[in-house]
């Protein structure tokens, strides 16, 4: 296992009470990755009972894991997993993985000009490195987390937009790396319907026992681009749900857009994938 290097623990979210105590949300650290050829930062949240029990905990890997998404996601998880909101989901460790090169690592196929019906949607200098990034997660980061913390066999991948595209591609290519997938409004428009083409060519039989929760937003305000992304995304989700015979589900949030759907997706997805059994 590659050497896990812990940086100085930082206060990610601190509020001072009248007594002068601090509320610490987690710690920041990094891993020297030989696979990626760079230092990869990540943040870790431990549930409230971690220090006073010998329990094993599920681990949630949060893509696009910047400080703001980390704070928001952990806030939802901790509220749902404690008596604050009637302990609806399991307490879990969260590992947030920030981007160093988002378009490079989260896209599964190389593309310099991303087009839809001859319209250029975006241009990139690097894309198509999802396979290598997945190898980093599987061979370096996950073993490092399992060695450092009391982890159970339950492992959840959370991805939104490009992160949702990456998570969906992982479900097709290496489904057993994670036991559960929370896929939020994936960029299904990528590479001319990449996900459905890959499913039809190699993913018709999803043998893993992984469960999947798909969340989709209403992006009709984007016209044909938004409608097509939704159509291709839900077609892929329906194919996965049919193949997995009831182990997965999808949900549409009519009043949310691509930029606002995450909070409700986290709330509902966690309750589906990590329900607390009393």
How does this structure look, described?
This protein has 278 residues and is an alpha/beta fold. It has one domain (4-273): 3-Layer(aba) Sandwich (Rossmann fold). Helix content is 33%, strand content 23%. The chain is built from seven helices and eleven strands. The strands form two sheets. The protein has a nine-stranded mixed β-sheet, with helices on both faces. A two-stranded antiparallel sheet has the order 6-7. Helix 1 (67-81) crosses helix 7 and helix 4 packs parallel to helix 5. The longest helix has 21 residues, at 224-244.
Write the SSE topology.
Blueprint: E1 4-5, E2 27-33, E3 38-45, E4 57-62, H1 67-81, E5 93-96, H2 102-106, E6 113-116, E7 119-123, H3 130-148, E8 151-160, H4 162-173, E9 180-184, H5 194-202, E10 211-217, H6 224-244, E11 248-253, H7 262-273
What CATH calls the topology is Rossmann fold
State the low-pLDDT regions, or none: 1-17
Q: Write down the overall geometry.
A: globular
Structural class: alpha/beta
Number of domains: 1
Number of helices: 7
Strand content: 15-25%
Order of helices and strands: EEEEHEHEEHEHEHEHEH
Instruction: Please give the radius of gyration in angstroms.
Output: 19 Å
Oligomer kind: single chain
Largest sheet: 9 strands, mixed
Task: Indicate the CATH class.
Answer: Alpha Beta
Strand segment count = 11
Range of helix content: 25-40%
Strand arrangement within the widest β-sheet reads 1-2-3-5-4-8-9-10-11
Q: Give the full name of the CATH homologous superfamily.
A: Alpha/Beta hydrolase fold, catalytic domain
Mean pLDDT, as a whole number? 92
